[in-house]
Design goal:
Elements lengths: L10 E6 L7 H11 L3 E6 L9 H7 L16 H8 L2 E7 L1 H9 L5 H8 L4 E5 L3 H5 L1 H12 L3 E3 L2 E4 L5 E5 L3 H14 L7 E6 L4 E2 L5 E2 L6 H12 L3 E6 L9 E5 L3 H11 L5 E4 L6 E3 L18 E3 L3 H8 L5 E8 L3 H11 L4 E6 L11 E2 L2 E4 L3 E3 L3 E2 H18 L5
Parallel strand pairs: 1-2, 1-3, 3-4, 4-5, 8-11, 8-13, 11-12, 13-16, 16-17
Antiparallel strand pairs: 6-7, 9-10, 14-15, 17-19, 18-21, 19-20
Helix pairs in contact: 3-5, 4-7, 9-13
This protein binds cytidine-5'-triphosphate.
Cytidine-5'-triphosphate binds next to helix 11 and strand 16.
Length: about 400
């Protein structure tokens, strides 16, 4: 299963219109579920002529709904609309597009559309002649002017042996549109987030270095999640990363290179997440040539590195949030509180690296988030979920305390 989690825990209402492409929304539903979404299907009466309610109920997070009036909930449309993160309509037929554009509210799907303030994506599918008709194009223009994202149909084989524009966009295209859409409506939209990841390497000679066990996974998860939540991200990392949307990746090696990169990006950052395991000490002298065995056993004298987090704490403006980490080998809470104070951070994410599922290289983490006025212990969770929760909590705190207006 893919590790993409922009849909993790997101509530999606999947509206299905009455067109032959309705069978493809079964696959779309399955992929949404695989990606961790909570999906509530709503089928129009025409959709039921093409696909079965049972199929959707069997695959979705809850039974499919088909009517405004058969539900145990007397007002399903407002509850569905108010509680969802996304309304996805696939396929959106010419009729459904027209009804949505004119504001008709004569079934559960159209009432949900009017009741929701969540983003709406409509994936159009119909015959070429219908798609090209002026009325359909005018309705689409109306929907777009209201902020609805309309995915246009693809060219290919159509029902009845025809060929042309009209096929439902591929599942991958729909998922890409959802990812982009959720990022644009994300809580970090318009914010710049600076993240560090990985362990620094402090050179001994051109071949050897002093390093640590950090895999960079938690920091990279923060960068990806910040991007998914809508931020513009700068990731300063010692480990290579595939490209991340809206993210500038700066590769560094040593603590001093990381310091330079972080300080360069800091003035324009709204939030910094110092997830990197920065070396506390480095060799005082770096040999310019390889230390040979024949030279005898070397004595490596260490000197302290500069503390990047502490420097950020000294320099930060009132509108900047700084989040540090504390990787401990005992009870992390007390140490986190000390580091929060000493380094003037707003939050410290602390974990016990000796705990199973919580150390370096694992895909999970169990962390305690220590803030100036709160301590929250999280359950063990994927590093992506940890990033999501910490970013959500820090953002909420910044908004509630007037740090971000
Ligand atoms: N950190 C930093 N620069 C350093 C050392 C650490 O910015 N030279 C940051 C880390 O990125 C992390 C936080 O400080 O966000 C705490 O790091 P940690 O290694 O847990 O703590 P130390 O400050 O090294 O303290 P101690 O050795 O007492 O555990």
């Amino acid at each position: 299963m893919s590790n993409i989690t922009y849909l993790s825990g997101k509530r999606v209402v999947l509206g299905v219109g009455g067109g032959i492409a309705a069978y493809k929304s079964v696959e779309l539903l399955r992929r949404l579920i695989d990606l961790g979404a909570y999906v509530s299907p709503v089928l129009t009466s025409s959709a039921l002529r093409f696909v079965g309610e049972t199929t959707f109920s069997a695959l979705a997070s809850e039974p499919a709904r088909t009517s405004l009036f058969d539900d145990r909930d007397p007002i399903p449309h407002t509850h569905l609309g108010q509680n969802c993160d996304l309304l996805l309509i696939a396929p959106a037929t010419a009729d459904l597009i027209a009804r949505c554009a004119t504001g008709l509210a004569d079934d559960l799907l159209t009432t949900t559309l009017i009741a929701t303030r969540a983003p709406v994506i409509m994936v159009a599918a119909m015959h070429s002649e219908m798609w090209e008709h002026a009325s359909v194009q005018a309705n689409i223009a109306t929907l777009r002017s209201r902020g609805v994202i309309v995915l246009e149909p693809e060219v290919g084989r159509l029902a009845g042996g025809d060929f042309g524009v009209g096929r439902l966009a591929s599942v991958d295209q729909v998922l890409a549109a959802i990812e982009q859409c959720l990022a644009q409506s994300g809580i970090l939209k318009g914010k710049k987030v600076l993240v560090t990841a990985g362990g620094t390497r402090e050179a001994i000679d051109p071949v050897r270095y002093i390093g640590n066990r950090s895999s960079g996974k938690q920091g990279i998860a923060f960068a990806k999640m910040a991007s998914q939540l809508g931020a513009e991200v700068v990731l300063v990392t010692t480990v290579a990363v595939d490209s991340v949307p809206n993210c500038q990746i700066v590769m560094v090696e040593s603590a001093s290179e990381m310091m330079d990169a972080v300080m360069g990006a800091f003035p324009s950052a709204d939030m910094v997440v110092m997830a990197a395991a920065v070396a506390d000490f480095r060799p005082k002298r770096i040999s310019s040539t390889k230390l040979k065995k024949s030279f005898g056993t070397p004595e490596i004298v260490l000197e302290p590195t500069d503390d990047i987090l502490a420097e950020l704490g000294r320099k930060k403006r009132p509108d900047q949030i700084v989040i540090g980490f504390a990787a401990e080998t005992g009870d992390p809470g007390a140490e986190a509180a000390r580091k929060l104070e000493d380094k003037n951070a707003d939050f410290i994410v602390a974990n016990n690296v000796l705990e199973p599922g919580s150390g370096f290289s694992t895909d999970t983490n169990r962390v305690t988030l220590v803030g100036k006025d709160s301590t929250t212990e999280f359950e063990i969770a994927s590093k992506t979920q940890v990033a999501d929760k910490v970013l959500q909590m820090a953002t909420k705190w910044a908004c509630e305390n007037g740090i971000w207006v």
